Amino acid sequence: MLTIVALIPARYASTRLPSKLVQDLGGKSVIQHTYLSTVSTAVFDEVWVVTDHLEIKRQIESLGGKVFVSRKDHQSGSDRIAEAVESIEADLIVNVQGDEPFQDKQSLMDLVSVFKDPKVDVASLKTRISAKAAENPNAVKVVTDLKGDALLFSRSVIPYNREDKPQVSYWKHIGIYAYRKNVLQEFTDLPKSDLESTEMLEQLRLLENGYRIRMVETVHQAIAIDTQEDLEEARKKVS
């Protein structure tokens, strides 16, 4: 049996919505909701919050949760959890986004199940979107090969529908990742790649260095809290 651990990177500072992870969401903070909903899926042997701030640490420990206090200078959530994983026993690491307070059990079960295939290094989620939604550069698109492994991620519309075919599938990438522990450690030691720097998508570093990313379909529409409007929408969900 694989030991599966969820790590939730939780950086206190945020640009569009200051200190968003400690904002109130129906009597608990955003990060508390994310932690509790991740635990409630019962998919993981352990759930840890990895944070650079003592207030987030206090909030999670008040729930009886496990916290790893990381350095403040990490450039990404992947780097943050890679520091933590050095001292955590696990076979699979799932990077759960701290600003997504409503986790979906079925999606996470489907995500970790693909590691029954020993050729899978990394897995992530995708969901079908409309051609109109695919035009939004904030929606990261993915195209895959016939096995379901990612060929490319882009903020541009991919595939490009040159002949205006009526039936073209567009897939949005949902940024929850599962890694074999050694692959996560290798990934964060790699230098930033050219495609990654161009698109500002760190998963392209994996593809450029020859790692497979198995994409798993989900119909769950995650709510990520980046703005005040997102927070108000989430508050309606818990009211």
Which SSEs are present, and which pair or pack?
Elements (H helix, E strand, L loop, with lengths): L3 E7 L13 E2 L2 E2 H11 L5 E6 L2 H8 L4 E4 L7 H9 L6 E4 L9 H9 L8 E8 L1 H4 L6 E4 L5 E5 L15 E11 H9 L4 H6 L3 H6 L4 E5 L10 H11 L1
Parallel strand pairs: 1-4, 1-6, 4-5, 7-11
Antiparallel strand pairs: 2-3, 6-10, 7-10, 8-9
Helix pairs in contact: 3-6
Gist?
This protein is an alpha/beta fold and 239 residues long.
Distance between the termini: 39 Å
Low-confidence parts: none
Share of helix among residues? Answer: 25-40%
- How many distinct helices? 9
Q: Proportion of β residues?
A: 15-25%
Radius of gyration: 18 Å
Order of helices and strands: EEEHEHEHEHEHEEEHHHEH
Judging from the principal axes of the Cα atoms, what is the shape? globular
Number of domains: 2
What's the count of strands? Answer: 11
Could you say what the CATH architecture of the largest domain is?
Alpha-Beta Complex
CATH class category name of the largest domain:
Alpha Beta
Could you tell me the mean pLDDT? 94
Biggest sheet architecture: 7 strands, mixed
